[in-house]
Amino acid sequence: MRLFSKFTTLIAVGAVAAITSTAAFSAEMTLKLGHLANEENAWHLAALKFGEELAALTDGRIEVQVFPNESLGKEIDLINGMQLGTVDMTITGESLQNWAPMAALLAVPYAYKSLDHMDEVASGEIGDNIKAQIIEKAKVRPIAYFARGPRNLTSNRAIKSPSDLNGLKMRVPNVPLFVDVWDSLGAAPTPMAFSEVFTSLQSGVIGAQENPLALIRSANFNEVQSHVNQTEHVRSWIYLTIAEATWAKLSDADKAAVEAAALVAQEYERGLLLDSLAQDQAFLESKGMTFVEVDGAAFQAAAKDAVLKNVKPEIKPIVEGLFAN
């Protein structure tokens, strides 16, 4: 069941959104939660929900202050701050592989066939092992995870299988894994800054690009692309985390409250994600874009060798298992 209860008292001061309980108790502990997303993003709204729930569960003794838009620092700076004890919480994902190699599993192309499959991994034994390594190596504790919208390929013609790519020149981020995967699929991947993509599509310098639906919509790619090919080639998740140093200060009862509030935030964020995916598809279709079902198994099979070549030896057996699933 999704929980969409209204927020309690919300106080915004500049870039800071502070959640306080309506109970007549003063906060005994304030947790600072910084992240990179803006105020409209589902991660931010879920962070606010976490603060609201935690305040309610602790009768206002624990307050959460949420700092969006990198206003408390950039992602890596926040992780460093959590290790130093100057930041309590953040939302972070595969960046944690700088400390914990298993965090790379959060965003491996074609490793997860569906949202349900990804949930099985994230909440199962592999997910437990990822979290344990992050705690040990990064001194950061994942307490919930948020799914990201899958990445899809846009183009001006239907792409149903790798053979349809046929040298299609497409923009990819400047990430060797992405370049190698799309090259192995038969495209002509071209690393390019995101700011250059719209005009490059408009002028015909490239014929395609790949991104989640939310970004396809916000970047107005519907004005220069006619098809969304549902490759869903990268499914990934990101963690709501608390510093181990902060966690150690909590009583057992307060740790339980933090975990309970985090689960509510996780469920809330999932509802927001599913709603946004449906809304983004409806919007793009209303603007004339055609959504194309693809042969996902063919794409995965063609990408396998390139993916395995690019992942670190420590996680390679796990990735092989995910592909064999």
Report a brief summary of the structure.
The chain is α/β, with parallel strands linked by helices.
Topology:
Blueprint: E1 10-13, E2 16-19, E3 29-34, H1 42-57, E4 62-67, H2 75-84, E5 89-92, H3 115-122, H4 125-138, E6 140-147, E7 151-155, E8 169-172, H5 176-185, E9 188-191, H6 197-203, E10 208-212, H7 213-218, E11 227-234, E12 237-243, H8 244-249, H9 252-286, E13 290-292, H10 296-310, H11 316-324
Parallel strand pairs: 3-4, 3-5, 8-9, 8-10, 11-13
Antiparallel strand pairs: 1-2, 2-4, 5-12, 6-12, 7-10, 7-11
Helix pairs in contact: 1-9, 5-10, 10-11
Summarize the structure in words:
This protein has helices at 42-57, 75-84, 115-122, 125-138, 176-185, 197-203, 213-218, 244-249, 252-286, 296-310, 316-324, and strands at 10-13, 16-19, 29-34, 62-67, 89-92, 140-147, 151-155, 169-172, 188-191, 208-212, 227-234, 237-243, 290-292. Strands 1-2-4-3-5-12-6 form a 7-stranded mixed β-sheet, with helices on both faces. The chain has a 6-stranded mixed β-sheet with strand order 9-8-10-7-11-13, sandwiched between helices. The chain is globular, with a radius of gyration of 21 Å. Residues 1-24 have low confidence and may be disordered. The protein starts with 9 loop residues before the first strand and ends with a helix. Helix 5 (176-185) packs across helix 10 (296-310) and helix 10 (296-310) runs antiparallel to helix 11. It is an alpha/beta fold and 325 residues long.
